[in-house]
Design brief:
InterPro entries: YjiS-like (IPR009506). The structure is a single chain. Helix 1 runs antiparallel to helix 3. The radius of gyration is 12 Å and the shape is elongated. It is mostly helical and 49 residues long.
């Protein structure tokens, strides 16, 4: 894996965590995500890139 791809994945992970953390508990619940799931969801999103 090259450095650009690694950075892109890291950046996507960070952005996803930031955006999900900005949501309220009700909004997360509407998405079917709990606060404890945020890092897992972000990792899955980043690894799909």
């Amino acid at each position: 894996m090259d450095i650009r791809k690694s950075f892109k994945r890291w950046s996507a992970y960070q952005q996803t965590v930031r955006e999900l953390n900005a949501l309220g508990n009700r909004e997360l619940s509407d998405l079917g995500i709990s606060r404890s799931d945020i890092q897992r969801v972000a990792r899955e999103h980043a690894s799909a890139l």
